[in-house]
């Protein structure tokens, strides 16, 4: 989550794979929805109903800038990050379901 920190990579990004740059699709101090769908090798991210990322992992994907552990390979970890150590971030109504 990064709506206004000085880092250009904003809310909705698939960090260091497909970055949403400069203008955040969400604003500070306003609740917003974020839907993240992973189906097969494709990740789609929408913020308040607007698609901001759609990325399909290529067959030869090596994990990119973050390294070889960063692949879609089945069940895995979900992480939610508040970008800046001085930020306060609240989450509610987190739902996870298999497709």
What does this structure look like?
- By secondary structure, this protein is an all-beta fold.
- The protein is 0% helix and 19% strand.
- Strands 1-2-3 form a three-stranded antiparallel beta sheet, with no helix packed on it.
- The radius of gyration is 14 Å and the shape is globular.
- The mean pLDDT is 88.
Outline the secondary-structure elements:
Layout: E1 34-39, E2 42-47, E3 50-56
Antiparallel strand pairs: 1-2, 2-3
List descriptors.
single chain; 3-stranded antiparallel sheet; 0% helix; 99 residues
**Radius of gyration over C-alpha positions, nearest whole angstrom:** 14 Å
**Number of beta-strand segments:** 3
Q: Main sheet, how many strands, which sense, barrel?
A: 3 strands, antiparallel
- State the helix count: 0
Q: Give helix % range.
A: under 10%
How do the strands line up in the largest sheet?
Answer: 1-2-3
* Approximate strand percentage: 15-25%
What is the subunit arrangement here? single chain
- Kindly name the structural category: mainly beta
Cα distance spanning the termini: 25 Å
Rough shape? globular
Poorly predicted spans: none
Mean pLDDT, as a whole number? 88
- List the helices and strands in order: EEE
Short characterization:
The chain is 0% helix and 19% strand. It has 99 residues and is an all-beta fold.
